[in-house]
Design a protein that fits this description.
By secondary structure, the chain is an alpha/beta fold. Among the domains are: 1-173, Rossmann fold; 336-438, Luciferase, Domain 3 (Luciferase, domain 3, Roll); 442-548, ANL, C-terminal domain (GMP Synthetase, Chain A, domain 3); 582-658, Non-ribosomal Peptide Synthetase Peptidyl Carrier Protein, Chain A (Orthogonal Bundle). It contains 22 helices and 28 strands. The strands form nine sheets. Strands 18, 20, 21, 22 and 23 form a five-stranded antiparallel sheet that branches. Strand 5, helix 6 and strand 6 (131-135) form a beta-alpha-beta unit. Helix 13 (259-268) packs parallel to helix 14 (292-302) and helix 19 (582-595) crosses helix 22.
Length: 660
């Protein structure tokens, strides 16, 4: 159990360090004895607030040691801590907190602990008769001591220990209530899967309000008695390679990150100074789809520092199972397989060669942890030789949660007789789990989950946007190594300047409410986006003519949807004139090939757009967004439309570029 493990370590090895926390180059070290003492001190302070046992305590802290001690102190006092992300300087604080009002009012009486200017906003939105709002700095200076329950009564296996919450804001956040027994079961299974010991040193920049950060950078090492080196996520963003410096300095052995972090570090690490990273047992990719090309780039960037392919590992995890569902085998390079891309688009698995045209590589997430069952809900296949069919991943384990906290509707939708429907689409191959896509309309942006409906509701509330005529989706950005958020919205606003201002308001609204940067906003005239017969935006068509919309099967992440279309022969135009800038010619043909998964060299100036598989309204919009970024020019969609060949499109883009 969490607290029992801490107290045992404080007795057996009191001065062995547990937490080394850095902020702005100021470092503080806390051995197990100090962590225990701080836990007891905070437990007394929180117990002195007079809240009933089992009350929820929301903690909204930035990167500081108090987040660890107040969290553990709440558990020791018989309360249920729940970490929430804190508003950043980029956000409107009042708007941010107003979006959480429904969450606070959903639970029974409790308290919220934060710091600084947050306190003023919180007290404005919270019903003070039911909730208390406290400044962490004021509390920390107090000496109030309330009676504490017996530790044995607190750490019952069936008692709720903590709450985790989803990222939704316009709808009610789903609380994942984790018991002491469930956390203990996850720790035991995952510890065995990765061979974790006291000797491990975990280096992390992950925020604790995310389940990956909470488990790998706090609860797991606390349970097994290992050391954590923790830095602020914003400081990591400003200086990503500092993580490697810390691994070298403190002989780090384990580090968890989402795929985008591997990609980002590899991109800026080319030619970086050599470090000694030989102490590392594993860099583990988790929380968003793991991509083989990202691993290859990371190894290439840091091979001179001792990074090997077998150091890079994968994990499939979710809060509903406390953390990990699967884990690749440490010490062995994760399996990468190639699949036929066309079959994958149709929801089936057909093996291919890595060098074959149209092949798509997937990285295994490894086998399920001991005690975890994984099932694929798919159409039955009875004929010999029938390809595997992709289905929804459904999981079961002793440590899986059985319901969402005080949310019976969400519980009924997601849980079925002990099985949890993940909403992720994938398949099992040789006992290992491969993820292909998602059934849920969820975007995973840089390791954070966002529901498309939340984004769409926020955008729809912006003045100038037609309510109910908004579509949000994720587009994989190879340079970033992660999905990026894209918004399509209908508007009655006319004029380029007015529409440019509207795009700015849309980005600001989503940033303020979700702390999410929208990569691209595409504004359409009213009536452009197709709807279903029930009145919903046709997500599968994403703005295409409804008559061309086909039944959509699960798609590989970040791949534009493709539809069958007839080939039409049009007299081919000549290539651009010899004085046309060659960089535009090369960029446009390369970006088209990448956008529509065409073979290298297949796109020429004579290529007819209608002959390109996937060239529809959505694909065309995505193409122009990418070209705009590559050419560093705002492209007038209407001026570029109607080109009969790629060569004619290049000429029109060149004209726009010359007039900038």
């Amino acid at each position: 159990m969490l607290l029992s493990s801490l107290y045992s370590e404080a007795i057996e090895t009191p001065y062995r360090p547990f937490l080394l926390i850095g902020r702005s180059d100021r470092w503080k070290q806390f051995p197990f004895l100090a962590v225990r003492d701080e836990t007891e001190r905070w437990a007394g302070i929180l117990a002195g607030l007079g809240r009933p046992l089992g009350s929820v305590v929301f903690l909204v802290f930035d990167h500081r040691e108090d987040i660890y001690f107040c969290f553990l102190g709440a558990i020791r006092a018989g309360l249920i801590p729940a970490l929430l992300p804190f508003p950043t300087p980029k956000q409107d604080a009042a708007d941010y907190w107003a979006s959480h009002e429904r969450l606070f009012s959903h639970y029974r009486s409790g308290c919220i602990i934060s710091y600084g200017s947050n306190i003023h906003h919180l007290r404005e939105i919270v019903n003070v008769l039911r909730w208390g709002v406290y400044d962490v700095d004021d509390l920390s200076s107090q000496r109030r001591v309330g009676p504490l329950p017996r530790l044995a009564d607190i750490e019952r296996a069936d008692r709720i220990a903590i709450l985790q919450h989803s990222s939704g804001t316009t709808g009610l956040k789903k609380g994942v209530a984790l018991s002491f027994g469930q956390i203990d079961g996850q720790v035991a299974a995952y510890r065995k899967a990765i061979g974790a010991t006291r000797a491990d040193r975990i280096v992390s920049w992950l925020p604790l309000y995310h389940d990956m950060g909470l488990m790998t950078g706090f609860l797991l090492p606390l349970s097994i008695g290992s050391m954590v080196v923790s830095i602020d996520a914003f400081e990591w963003l400003a200086e990503p390679l500092r993580l490697l410096d810390l691994i070298e300095r403190y002989a780090g052995s384990l580090c968890w990150m989402p795929n985008f972090a591997f990609q980002h570090m590899a991109r800026i690490g080319d030619g970086a100074r050599t470090r000694d990273l030989s102490s590392m047992r594993a860099f583990i990719s988790c929380s968003e789809p793991c991509r083989p090309e990202t691993f290859e780039r990371f190894v290439a960037a840091f091979a001179s520092s001792g990074v090997t392919p077998s150091m890079l590992q994968t994990c499939y995890a979710m809060a509903e199972t406390v953390f990990a569902v699967t884990q690749s085998q440490l010490g062995r390079e994760p399996r990468s397989i190639a699949l036929d891309g066309q079959a994958l688009d149709n929801g089936t698995v057909v093996m291919s060669r890595h060098d074959r045209s149209g092949a798509r590589k997937l990285l295994s997430c490894g086998p399920a942890l001991e005690g975890v069952e994984v099932r694929i809900d798919s159409r039955p296949t009875t004929e010999a030789g029938t390809p595997l069919t992709i289905g929804e991943i459904v999981v079961k384990a002793d440590f899986i949660v059985h319901s969402y906290y005080a949310n019976p509707d969400a519980t009924a939708e997601a849980f079925d007789s002990g099985w949890y429907r993940t909403g992720d689409m994938g398949f099992l191959h040789d006992g290992e789990v491969f993820i292909c896509g998602r059934r849920k309309e969820m975007l995973i942006i840089h390791g954070r989950n966002f529901y498309a409906g939340d984004i769409e509701a926020i955008v729809g509330s912006v003045e100038g946007v037609k309510p109910g005529r908004v579509l949000a989706y994720g587009e994989f950005d190879a340079a970033a190594g992660s999905e990026e958020a894209v918004v399509l919205a209908e508007t009655t606003v006319d004029g380029s300047e007015a529409r440019s201002a509207l795009k700015g308001r849309i980005r600001a609204a989503v940033l303020d409410r979700l702390d999410l940067t929208i990569k691209a906003v595409d504004l359409r005239d009213v009536g452009t986006l197709a709807k279903t017969t029930s009145g919903k935006i046709l997500r599968s068509a994403r703005g295409a003519d409804p008559s061309t919309a086909a039944t959509i099967m699960p798609l590989p992440l970040g791949t534009p949807e493709k539809t069958d279309r007839s080939r039409t022969t049009i007299p081919k135009d000549p290539a651009p004139s010899r004085d046309e800038p060659r960089d535009i010619l090369s960029v446009v043909m390369t970006v088209i090939a990448e956008t529509f998964d065409a073979e290298p060299g297949a796109i020429t100036p004579q290529t007819v757009p209608s002959d390109i598989d996937g060239w529809d309204s959505l694909g065309y919009s995505i193409l122009l967004m990418r070209l705009s970024r590559q050419l560093r020019v705002e492209i007038d969609e209407h001026a570029a439309a109607g080109a009969r060949t790629v060569g004619e499109l290049i000429e029109r883009l060149a004209q726009q570029r010359r007039h900038v």
